[in-house]
Every structure is written in C-alpha cells, then in structure tokens.
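We were asked to recover a plausible sequence for a given structure. The inputs and outputs are reproduced exactly as logged, with field labels preserved.

PROBLEM: sequence recovery
POSITIONS: 383
GIVEN STRUCTURE:
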C-alpha cells in the first residue's frame, strides 16, 4: 500500500531529504545548489521527523512518506488495541473493538497524507484514557497525561491541531473524574498541557540551528507568516452549496477575490484574511439563508459519517447508557472534530478526526451494551 500525498508536499519532502544528506541540518532543503527552509508554508513535522528517516534508509520521498505514515498507523493500532483490551469488559467487545481499530486504520491510510495522524493519535490514546477512567488509578492518570501531551505535541507538528481533540477529550475526562482529588485532576491537566509544549519548544531550537547553518551558505529572505489561514477556508467553504455569489471550494476563488480588492496582497497574509473575514460577515448579514443552507448541508453530510462509522454502536449507546463521565468527553471530542468539516467542507481529509471519534464512540457503546448484558445475566455465586 502506498500513502497518497499531495505532489508539492512530496517535492518538499524530497528537497528536505536531499538537504539533510548534504548538510546534516534538519529542516533545510536543497534543490540543485540552492538551500532553503523546509517549512515555510506547511506544518513542519513531516519534514522534521520523516526526512532523516528517508535519508538514513536511502528512500525517496514517496517511500519515506509511506513508511512513516503506515508506521504511525501500525503503532496506533497496537497501542489502541492494548487499551481496548484493558478497558473493555467482555471478550466479544474487545474483539469487535480491535477489528474496528484495524478497519479505521485502513480508512485513514486510504485518505492518506498528513491527515493520517488525526486518526492515529485518537485511536492510540482514547482507549487508554477510557481504561484509566474505569480503573480509577491516579498514577495511571498522570502517566497518561504525560505521554498523551508529549506525543500529541509531536502530532500537532505533523498536522496542525491533530491532537487538539484528544486534549479536549482528556481535559473533559479529568474534570469528570470525581473519584480523584481535585488537586490530582488539576495536576493531570497541567501535565498534559505542559508536555504538549515540549515539541514546539524543540522545533524552535531546530529552527535556530537550521537558520544558523543557512546563514553560512545562502542569503535567505525573512520568514514570512505561515500556517493554515482560517478565513480563507471559511470563505471558499461557503461554496459547498450552489450559490449566486460565484464562490466554489477552490483556493483560486479566494485568491482572485482578494486580488480584486487588494492587488498584490499575499495569500494567507493578515491583509488577505481581513478581506475574506469581512466578506464572510457581509454574506452572513446580507444573505443569511445562503450561509444557513451551507451549514445545514455540511451538518447533514457529517451526520452521515457518524451513522456509517459509529453504526450500531449508536443504538447500543442509547440502550446501555454508559456513565456520563465516559460519554461526555467523547461527545465533546466528537463535536470539536466536526469543526473542520463545517469550516471547510465535509470530506474525509478534513474529517479523519471525526471519523475516528465516531468509531470510538461506537465501540464504547457496544462494549457498554455487552457489559451491561453480562452483568444482568451473571449467576450469583453460591454461598
């Protein structure tokens, strides 16, 4: 199986592999005789973690990306399956949970690219969070917080906000874990958030070392603002439904609109974002029916994903009614994971986190139903 990647991302990964081979410097690219920065306009994690792997193993960019992301998914399946085996109450629900995680990994691999990690981080950690909550172990709570924060921070470098849903689920679970003292729950939250900052801090160090090297071999322009522009996505996301405003889900549409009002404005710049934000608010006030129709259509599509991936687990949740301390964090995480599909468009690339949360919600419902049934049919031991 080959992980599908955006062509420009593969080109950048290959340049980063070549840069590492030529210089030994992380996040430095090399195209011909020219050096550059790998992460000027994209999340840096793929280039930071995968490029050295590809260089050491003698792989090209496509092979490196496939090994990197399939490896992440394989580790996530193993970790999540162990968590399911600990957390779930019956052999049948454990088996169903493990199979569901394997199927979820296949779906994520089919989606491909950096979107894989949004599924992987939830698949790996949410079952363990459930196990910790059910086990009521304060030591395990702190260990979970540290590991989830550390690896979640790294995940966020690969795909922006890929671990935000996990953090929200964990914080909600900590808040509702009334079996633990308040100070212990607060400490777990602090540990989670603090360890999530370790990866960005390490990235800053890498940037300083990389830029120090580049300063000796290349005259580079100042680093421009980079990231994922919010209002750009919101604006073209309005084109999910047919409209009379000429909006479709194409980057070129937003770029052209901005150029009409501010020729020369850079895509993703503060000026560009300000123009698009103003237009979104103008449309929301002058044509609210259009905006509402788009949001409604997106929510309907997202509900379809929920029905497919949670499946019979939704019915099991209604029947079994698991404790609110287990259900509420999952519902909060599910709701947050739907936001990319509402802001942009509801396609698998932007809903890998939602698909993962739907699957996890479904298997928790199934486990709750089997556990409830087992407890009802258990024969009391003779005295």
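RECOVERED SEQUENCE:
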């Amino acid at each position: 199986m080959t992980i599908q990647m955006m062509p420009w991302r593969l080109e950048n990964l290959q340049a980063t592999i070549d840069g590492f081979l030529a210089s030994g410097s992380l996040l430095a690219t090399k195209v011909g005789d020219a050096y550059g920065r790998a992460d000027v306009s994209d999340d840096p994690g793929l280039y930071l973690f995968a490029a050295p792997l590809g260089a050491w193993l003698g792989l090209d960019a496509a092979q490196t990306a496939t090994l990197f992301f399939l490896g992440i998914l394989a580790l996530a399946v193993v970790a999540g399956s162990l968590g399911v085996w600990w957390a779930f109450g019956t052999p049948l629900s454990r088996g169903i949970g493990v199979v569901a995680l394997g199927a979820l990994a296949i779906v994520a691999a089919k989606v491909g690219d950096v979107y894989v990690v949004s599924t992987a981080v939830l698949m790996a950690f949410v079952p363990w969070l459930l196990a910790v909550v059910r086990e009521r172990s304060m030591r395990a709570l702190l260990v979970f917080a540290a590991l989830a924060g550390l690896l979640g921070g790294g995940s966020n470098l690969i795909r922006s906000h890929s671990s935000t849903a996990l953090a929200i689920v964990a914080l909600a679970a900590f808040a509702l874990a009334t079996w633990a003292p308040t100070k212990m729950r607060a400490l777990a939250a602090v540990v989670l958030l603090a360890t999530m900052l370790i990866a960005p801090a390490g990235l800053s160090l890498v940037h300083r070392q990389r830029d120090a090297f580049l300063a000796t071999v290349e005259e580079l322009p100042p680093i421009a603002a980079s990231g994922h522009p919010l209002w750009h996505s919101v604006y073209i996301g309005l084109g999910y439904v047919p409209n009379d405003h000429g909006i479709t889900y194409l980057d070129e549409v937003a770029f052209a609109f901005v150029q009409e009002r501010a020729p020369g404005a850079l895509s993703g710049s503060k000026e560009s974002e300000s123009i698009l934000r103003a237009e979104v608010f103008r449309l929301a006030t002058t044509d609210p029916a259009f905006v509402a129709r788009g949001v409604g259509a997106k929510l309907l599509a997202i509900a379809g994903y929920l029905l497919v991936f949670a499946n019979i687990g939704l019915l099991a949740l209604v029947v079994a009614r698991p404790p609110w301390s287990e259900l509420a964090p999952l519902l909060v995480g599910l709701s947050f994971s739907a936001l990319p599909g509402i802001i942009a468009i509801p396609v698998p690339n932007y809903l890998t986190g939602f698909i993962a949360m739907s699957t996890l919600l479904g298997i928790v419902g199934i486990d709750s139903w089997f556990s409830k049934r087992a407890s009802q049919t258990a024969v009391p031991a003779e005295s």
